[in-house]
Write a structure and sequence with these properties.
Structural class: mainly beta
Number of helices: 1
Distance between the termini: 66 Å
Number of domains: 1
CATH architecture: Sandwich
CATH class: Mainly Beta
Largest sheet: 5 strands, mixed
CATH topology: Immunoglobulin-like
Order of helices and strands: HEEEEEEEEE
Length: about 100
């Protein structure tokens, strides 16, 4: 019994350790006109590392919103293949990217 308890404690500590907690990220893609702004439906939004080797993709709905769960770090936001903003996501529970103008 004495040997099992230390092994169990070490295993539990190893399983509970993580390098970083995922951050819930959200934002909105908009179409802007001279007089107004509208949510961009069916926009292909990607959140990528700056070297674009790792990307997550999301297709917006009628509300223009997109959602990701990523590790803290530096990213670029692309809408329909065009880089719209660089962001630094800190280790916080949630992060809102300010509205971005999309393209068609």
């Amino acid at each position: 019994m004495r040997r099992i308890l230390p092994a169990f404690v070490m295993l539990a500590a190893a399983l509970g350790a993580s390098s970083a907690d995922a951050v819930n990220v959200r934002g909105r893609a908009d179409i802007r006109t001279p007089t107004n702004s509208y949510p961009m439906n069916a926009a292909h939004v990607e959140l990528c590392t700056p070297d674009t080797k790792r990307c997550q993709a999301f297709m917006t709905g009628y509300d223009g919103m997109y959602y990701f769960s990523v590790d803290p770090g530096r990213y670029v936001v692309r809408i329909n293949g065009v880089v719209r903003r660089e962001v630094v996501i800190n280790n916080v529970p949630s992060f809102d990217i300010p509205g971005l103008q999309g393209n068609r």
